[in-house]
Amino acid sequence: MSDHSPLAFAEAPKGCRRCQRLVSLRKSLRKDHPDWWNAPVPAFGDPEAWLAVVGLAPGTEGANRTGRPFTGDASGQTLFATLTKYGFVDGQFANDPADGISLNGAIILNAVKCLPPENKPTGAEIYNCRDYLKKAARALPRLRVIVALGKIAHDSIIRMEGLRLADHKFAHGAHHALPDGRTLIDSYHCSRYNLNTGRLTVEMFEDVFEQAAYLSSASRR
Questions:
Q1: Dihedral angle at the C-alpha atoms of 124, 128, 133, 139, nearest 10 degrees?
Q2: Could you read off the pLDDT of 79-99 as tens digits, one per residue?
Q3: How far is CA 75 from each of CA 49, 63, 83, 220, rounded to the nearest angstrom?
Q4: 58 and 115 in contact (C-beta within 8 Å)?
Q5: What is the pTM of this model?
Q6: What's the mean pLDDT in 70-76?
Q7: SS3 state at 109
Q8: Cα 144 from Cα 146, distance rounded (Å)
Q9: Res 4: pLDDT
C-alpha cells in the first residue's frame, strides 16, 4: 500500500469526512480489517496520460483493501489485461500493489474515491467527490480521451463539464464531445457481474480501447 499519487494535489485527504455514510463504513472496516487501505483511493498512472479510465468507486476487497484502483478483485484483472494488450502497462500485473507495475500513457481515476455500501454511492456522495475528479482531469495536459466505466462515471463527467445528461445519454461505445476538445467514450463496467451475465464481453470492452486509440491517433494527424 502507498500514499503516492501522480496527482497528489487533486486527491481527497486520507481522513476525508465529506460523506458521513462512507466515513462510518471506513471506520467499521478498519476495526474488522486494520491491515486494509480503508481510505480514499488515489489515482494511479501516468500524469502525462492521453487516456483516462474513470471507474465507479473502490471495490470492497479490491482498491479499498489494496489502495490501488482496480487491484485485488476480478474487475481489475479484466481492465489491466486490456490495458496490457494495448501497451499501457509496464511490468507484469499480478493483481497486487506489490507487482510494481506502472502505466504509460494512461491513468485510472474514480468518480467516487471511497468505498460505498453495496457499491452504490448516493447522488450527494458522487457530487461531493466530483471536484476531485475535475481537478485530476484538468491537471492532465495531454489528456485526449476519457473512458467512463458505467453510467455513474459517465454522468459525473458530463455534469463536471456543465453539460446536460439529456443531450449525452450513456450507451456502451457512445462518443461524447466535451467542451475542452476531449472525447468521452462510454463502456459498461468491467465488473464480474457484467461479464458473467454477458452484458459485456471482452471483445466489447477491447473495442472501446480500439476506438480510443483511433481517436487519439486521428487527433494528432
A1: 150
A2: 999 999 999 999 999 999 999
A3: 21, 11, 12, 31
A4: yes
A5: 0.96
A6: 96
A7: strand
A8: 7
A9: 74
